[in-house]
Amino acid sequence: MSALGELGSLRGKKPAGQKKDNLAGYLFLAPWLLGLFLITIGPMVASLYLSFTDYNLIQAPQWIGLENFTRMLSDERLHNSLRVTFTYVFVSVPLQLAIALLLAVVLDRGVRGMAFYRSVFYLPSLLGSSVAIAILWRQVFGTTGLLNQVLDVFGIEGKGWISDPSTALGTLVVLNVWTFGSPMVIFLAGLRQIPTMYYEAASVDGAGVLRRFFSITLPLLTPILFFNLVLQIIHAFQSFTQAFVVSGGSGGPSDSTMFFTLYLYDRGFGNFDMGYASAMAWFLLVIIGVFTAANFFASKYWVFYDD
Amino acid sequence: MTTETLQRSVTARRTAPVTWSRIRPLVIHVLLAGSALVMLYPVIWMVVSSLRPGNEIFRDPGILIKDLRIENYRVGWHALTEPFTRYLLNSAVVVLGSILGNLVSCSMAAYAFARLEFAGKKFWFAIMLLSIMLPIHVVIVPQYILFSNLGWINTVLPLIVPKLLATDAFFVFLMVQFIRGIPRELDEAARIDGCGKASIFGRIILPLMVPALATTTIFTFIWTWNDFFSQLIYLTDPHMYTVPVALRSFVDSTSSSSWGSMFAMSVVSLVPVFLAFLLGQRFLIKGIATTGIK
Asked: Which are the contacts of B265, defined by CB distance < 8 A and separation ≥ 6?
């Protein structure tokens, strides 16, 4: 059962018949609780406070009310970074999930060597977040990079995919799609839960491959699809490393790969404008929260729960 | 006559699907192997290119080595202010500390959530699940302020201490899931034999949850090894650089002429991840399938 499923089913659970032992419970929980307050909730409250201040790490924070937020309204670079981030999220996540689902369905049909293919397709998910792969991407999509060399073999003239503002973001989308392995593994686990009996019955009734996919597989897989969708969207909104390294830390060319997180880093740790960075961080949390909530809301209309 | 044609039409009908069903797996294999190759080709090519002389990176898209050289590795190893050994050691310290922290703190919290009854348990459990989804950016600025006031910038402490306090809640959840699968009768039997909660944890639960601990170890290893954002922020002194931060500074400081050595060091940085993947893929895939994150 997934973390999201857990969250949904929390209300329904009955407490076990065991006697309460608060001392033991809280002792075992102590490190986590300490971390929760010192490393997570404390800083969250602090950053909420800082978002209403002007703070450069040297002088004490100065209360400026809503100024950071009104500044965000007229900050063109911030608006651009939102556009870039939204494009990235809403292009790469559906593509990534579609490919993950397609390959999971193909692999699930008892292909010989399934474990091998699963491993090979999964590997990029582990490598994808590394600086080394981002460096590789810089080369592959560079003017004299691997892609253009291969295109050259076929007589096609390439271009500087990363130096051209109209394609730079596309190379990052490709990189995110490349890591479709982990949602694929989750899909595979979900496919295994579907009773083969359903497929046999459908075959007897004369349903073809496509019909079986759309009438059985897809509806029964919607909870997993939903789960993958929520997580990958949350994940994609927070992407940082790849854009940072591929663009050489600038978010360029012409801010075309300036993710929201890159701009946040630039404000906070490049310019030590900590108040503004905090306000941006809370804005990001609200955006992610809104999209997750919208996802949960919409799920009532398309996610199918068998039980 | 009639029986013969009937016979023939039956065999004809039978052979048609037989040939397709014989070809189909082949077609699928070709497609799968083809897409696998396309996916991994750039990585394979990077490894090959790192073993080639100089600027062949910009000329040869193939993966055959005519002239094997390890020069790029020798040059790359000493291209930055410190030898690469230093960065590998720094990364190793962060990774080992993180693994140790996650194993101890997350297993304790997981035991409390999965087996103990205490006031407010459901509430804390919900908070724990929510914290998995919290973006690091929301807390990074005040955390940075906190750690810099403690004088921890350019030490490994900001990277390890949070793990000792179970902030990677994902692993708490993974372990909770696992402990729930261990029969409660074992706890009961141990309790009747006079074991307290701590020794049930130490003698029954921990030994039985080794697969979950292995999954945690491998994921922590790979994620921490690859982690860039927090290491970039907390480690600004070149002596303290970890592998990802060092690689990044390589990008900044080099011209196109040293792509070979940059590739070589990139390959070096990927080797541990690849080994962890080979040794632990069983645990990785199981971990992903049961908790489904990342």
From this structure: B73, B76, B77, B79, B84, B246, B247, B250
pTM for the full model? 0.88
Instruction: Report domain extents, chain B.
Output: 15-69, 76-291
Phi and psi for A83 in degrees, rounded to 5?
A: -60, -45
DSSP 8-state symbol, A13: P
Sign of CA dihedral A189, B132, A237, B40: negative
Rg, Å, chain A Cα set: 24
Write out pLDDT tens, residues B141-195. 899 999 999 999 999 999 999 999 999 999 999 999 899 989 999 999 999 998 9
Strands (E) across A57-174 are located at: 62-63
CATH 1.10.10.10 is right for the domain spanning B76-291: no
Q: Are B222 and A109 in contact (CB under 8 A)?
A: no
* Residue A32 with chain B: CB contacts under 8 Å: 105-106, 108-109, 128, 165-166, 169, 172
CA distance A263 to B205: 46
ipTM of the complex: 0.87
Asked whether the beta carbons of residue A131 and residue B244 sit closer than 8 angstroms, the reply is yes
Task: Answer for the pair B130, B141: CB distance below 8 angstroms, yes or no.
Answer: no
3-class secondary structure, B134: coil
Measured between CB atoms, which of B61, B134, B277 is closest to A146?
A: B61
Complete domains list, chain A, with CATH: 75-302 (1.10.3720.10)
Q: At A58, is the pLDDT very low, low, confident or very high (cuts 50, 70, 90)?
A: confident
Interface list for B 213-272 with A (CB within 8 A): 222-223, 225-226, 228-229, 233, 243-245, 247-248, 250-252, 259, 262-263, 266-267, 269-270
Single-letter residue type at A245: V
**Residue B255 — pLDDT band, cuts 50, 70, 90?**
low
